[in-house]
Design brief:
This protein has 541 residues and is an alpha/beta fold. The protein has 2 domains: 239 residues, no CATH class; 251 residues, Glycosidases (TIM Barrel), CATH 3.20.20. The protein contains 19 helices and 8 strands. An 8-stranded parallel beta barrel has the order 1-2-3-4-5-6-7-8, surrounded by 5 helices. Helix 12 packs antiparallel against helix 13 and helix 13 runs antiparallel to helix 17. The two termini are 39 Å apart.
Length: 541
C-alpha cells in the first residue's frame, strides 16, 4: 500500500526533473554569429582601454597601475585591434603611448577634464607632451570626455581648452560626448578637427532593443553627418553590456552583447565608417557609479583576461548550464525527499493537492536556482551586496524545502509573531522558527528592493529569480494550510501594503517591455497577497 501511495510523488518528481531539463535546454540555446566580435582575420579598428583590474579604481587618487600590467594588456590587445583609446593620463595611464609604440598600436589619447582647473591644466600639459614624444603613435587627442553631460564645465570653457591644446600640437584634436550634446552645443564643431560621438543604445533616454541597436547606431551617425558636414564623424563609444538590469526592452546579456557588437562591426565595414568599441576589458570599479551594468561592457573578462566570445564558438547566456541544471535537479530531489520523509512519519495521508504543491515549489526552485546563483555572482558588489543577495539566495533555497516539510506535516505558514512576538504567540518548533526566519528575510529584502526601485531605480538589479524561488512555496503553503481563525498580524499587513503600493509605481515607471520588472512586480504582489492572508493563532494555555 505504501508503494502505491508513493506513485503520485514519484510521478511528479519525474515530471519536475523533465521540466527542469527542458527549461535549461531552452535557456542555454546558443546563437551563431555571422561575424565574431573578435575575428582573427580582421582586427578591430579601436577599443577603449582602461588598465584597472580587480579592486583597482581611478576613483582612488593613489591608484597607480604598473608598467608590467599595462604591457601585458596591450600585448594581448595588439593581437585583436590596431588602436586603443584612453581617457586620461593619471593613475599610470600615461605609460600607454610608450608601450603601445613598441607593439605598433595607435593611441587615441584622452584628456580628462572636470571642474578642477589645476587638474585640467596638468592633464593637458602631460597629454600634449606625450603627443610630441610619440607623434607616430598618438593619432588624436580627445579634449574632455562627456564633461558637458556631467555638467562640470561650460561650453565656453570647453572650447577654450580645445583651442589651447590645438595651439600646442599638430595632432588632430576632438571632443567626445553623447551625440545629443553635440546637437545642443553646435559651437564645439568649429573648434575641433573631427567630431567624436558616443552612441550607446542601452543608455538612450528611450532604450533601444538589442536587435535594433546596430541600425540605431548607423541612423544616428548619418543624422550627425548631415548636421555636421565637412568633418569626419568618429563613433567614439558604442557597444552593449553583458550583465545588468533591463531598461525597458534593452536586455543586457552575453548573447545580446555578442550580437550587437557583431552587427555594429559588420555595419561599419559595409558603410565605411570608423568605430571605437567600449570596451576592451570589463571594469568592476564602474559598478560603484553605474551599478552592475557598468562593469560588464568589455570584450574580455575582467579577472581571467580571456575573450568572452572565442572565434568559432557558439555564444550562450549560460555556458555552464549543465552544472546549473544539475544543481536545480539536486534541489528538486531534496525537496521531494524531505516531503516523502515527512509524509512517512504522519498518521494521515496527504491528498494530491499537497503533492502538487510540493512539485510546483520543487520545479520552480529547480528551474531558477542556476539563474539566481548566476545573478548573485554577477550582481553582488561589496560586502553589503554579497550579504544581501547571499541571504536572499539562501532563503530561496531553504523555502521550498521547509515549505515541503510544512505541507506534509499539515502546518501553516508561520507569522512574524511566532518568531518575534509575545510569548503567547511564539512557536518552539525549530523548523517553524526557521521557516519564519526565511519568510522574514525574504520580506525585508523584497521591501528594501521595492523601495529602491521606487525612489532610486536607475542602477538597481531585479531579483526576480531568487524572489520567485522563495515566494512560490510561501504562497502555496498559505493557500493549502491557511488557518481558518486567528488575528491579522500588523507587521504582515504593513509589508503587504508597502509592496502593493510600490509595485504599481514600478510597473508604470519601468514600462511594459521590461519583463524583468514585470516578473519582479508579480512576485511582490504574490508576496503581498501571502502576507495579507496571514493569520496568527495564539498558543493554547
Amino acid at each position: 500500500m505504501e508503494l502505491i501511495s508513493l506513485r503520485t510523488p514519484l510521478a511528479l518528481f519525474v515530471i519536475s526533473l523533465c521540466a527542469i531539463a527542458a527549461v535549461w535546454w531552452w535557456l542555454a540555446t546558443p546563437i551563431h554569429l555571422v561575424r565574431a566580435p573578435i575575428d582573427p582575420n580582421a582586427k578591430l579598428q579601436c577599443v577603449s582601454y582602461a588598465p584597472f583590474r580587480g579592486a583597482q579604481t581611478p576613483l582612488v587618487e593613489t591608484t597607480h597601475i604598473t608598467t608590467a600590467q599595462i604591457a601585458e594588456d596591450l600585448a594581448q590587445l595588439a593581437k585583436v585591434t590596431d588602436c586603443v583609446r584612453t581617457y586620461s593620463v593619471e593613475n599610470g595611464v600615461d605609460q600607454v603611448p610608450a608601450l603601445a609604440a613598441k607593439l605598433g598600436l595607435k593611441v587615441i589619447q584622452g584628456i580628462w577634464l572636470g571642474s578642477n582647473r589645476q587638474r585640467n591644466a596638468a592633464q593637458i600639459g602631460t597629454a600634449v607632451q606625450l603627443a610630441r614624444n610619440y607623434p607616430g603613435t598618438i593619432t588624436a587627442l580627445v579634449v574632455g570626455n562627456e564633461v558637458l553631460l556631467r555638467g562640470e564645465m561650460t561650453v565656453a570653457d570647453l572650447v577654450a581648452n580645445i583651442r589651447i591644446v590645438k595651439a600646442q600640437t599638430a595632432v588632430p584634436v576632438t571632443y567626445a560626448d553623447v551625440w545629443e550634446f553635440w546637437l545642443k552645443n553646435r559651437e564645439i564643431y568649429d573648434a575641433v578637427d573631427f567630431v567624436t560621438i558616443h552612441i550607446l543604445p542601452y543608455w538612450e533616454d528611450f532604450p533601444i532593443k538589442a536587435k535594433f541597436a546596430a541600425s540605431h547606431v548607423d541612423s544616428i551617425r548619418k543624422r550627425m553627418a548631415v548636421s555636421f558636414p565637412g568633418k569626419e564623424i568618429l563613433i567614439g563609444e558604442t557597444g552593449w553590456p553583458s550583465q545588468g538590469r533591463m531598461r525597458e526592452g534593452a536586455l543586457p546579456s552575453r548573447t545580446s552583447q555578442a550580437l550587437v557588437v557583431s552587427e555594429i562591426l559588420d555595419t561599419a565595414k559595409r558603410e565605411g565608417f570608423r568605430v571605437n568599441l567600449i570596451e576592451a576589458y570589463d571594469q568592476p570599479w564602474k559598478r560603484q557609479l553605474e551599478g552592475t551594468v557598468g562593469g560588464y561592457w568589455g570584450l574580455f573578462d575582467a579577472f581571467q583576461r580571456v575573450v568572452k566570445y572565442p572565434p568559432g564558438t557558439a555564444v550562450s547566456n549560460f555556458p555552464s548550464w549543465k552544472l546549473q541544471m544539475a544543481g536545480g535537479m539536486i534541489l528538486c530531489a531534496v525537496t521531494f525527499i524531505v516531503a516523502i520523509a515527512t509524509f512517512r512519519r504522519r498518521p494521515w495521508k496527504p491528498g494530491f493537492l499537497a503533492w502538487l504543491t510540493v512539485a510546483i515549489s520543487a520545479t520552480t526552485a529547480g528551474c531558477l536556482l542556476g539563474i539566481a546563483a548566476d545573478k548573485m555572482f554577477y550582481e553582488s558588489y561589496g560586502i553589503g551586496g554579497w550579504l544581501k543577495w547571499g541571504a536572499l539566495l539562501t532563503a530561496a533555497i531553504l523555502s521550498p524545502v521547509l515549505c515541503a516539510n510544512a505541507v506534509m506535516a499539515g502546518r501553516p505558514l508561520p507569522t512574524f509573531l511566532e518568531l518575534l512576538g509575545p510569548r503567547d504567540f511564539r512557536n518552539r518548533s525549530t523548523l517553524t522558527i526557521l521557516l519564519a526566519l526565511v519568510l522574514a528575510v525574504t520580506t525585508v529584502i523584497a521591501a528594501e528592493t521595492a523601495l529602491g526601485f521606487t525612489f532610486d531605480p536607475r542602477y538597481r538589479d531585479f531579483p526576480y529569480a531568487a524572489l520567485t524561488m522563495a515566494v512560490v512555496p510561501f504562497l502555496s503553503l498559505m493557500v493549502l494550510n491557511r488557518p481558518q481563525t486567528g488575528v491579522r498580524p500588523i507587521a504582515e499587513s504593513v509589508f503587504a501594503g508597502l509592496l502593493a503600493a510600490c509595485t504599481v509605481f514600478i510597473a508604470i515607471n519601468e514600462g511594459r517591455d521590461n519583463w524583468q520588472s514585470l516578473w519582479t512586480c508579480a512576485m511582490y504582489l504574490l508576496l503581498a497577497l501571502t502576507l495579507w492572508r496571514a493569520r496568527a493563532v495564539q498558543n493554547p494555555e
